[in-house]
Amino acid sequence: MAEPMRIRATMAGDVADVKVLMNHPMETGTRKDAKTGQLVPAHFISEITATVNGTAVLNADIGGAVSKNPYLGFKVKGPKAGDKVVVSWVDNKGDKNSAEATIG
Description:
It contains no helices and seven strands. It has about 100 residues and is mostly beta strands.
């Protein structure tokens, strides 16, 4: 099971500032294990989505070139304090994770 993500969403005027820390190894599949010399299998987040009150506000396709435990920050114009933001990801092995926050 995936580790929990940390998410924070704050309002600045009419813009919500969303910050997410995702726990994930983000292995490219090209790194060798120092002890065995074997390639470490690829394991990376491939898709990230974000919604505000169920409406998609971000869709991103990423890959193994992103560092371990990626940080994502984005801004959304229009939501209000009290609205719900949900950020979800799917990785190349089919694992999924999501986190939600109330915009404050």
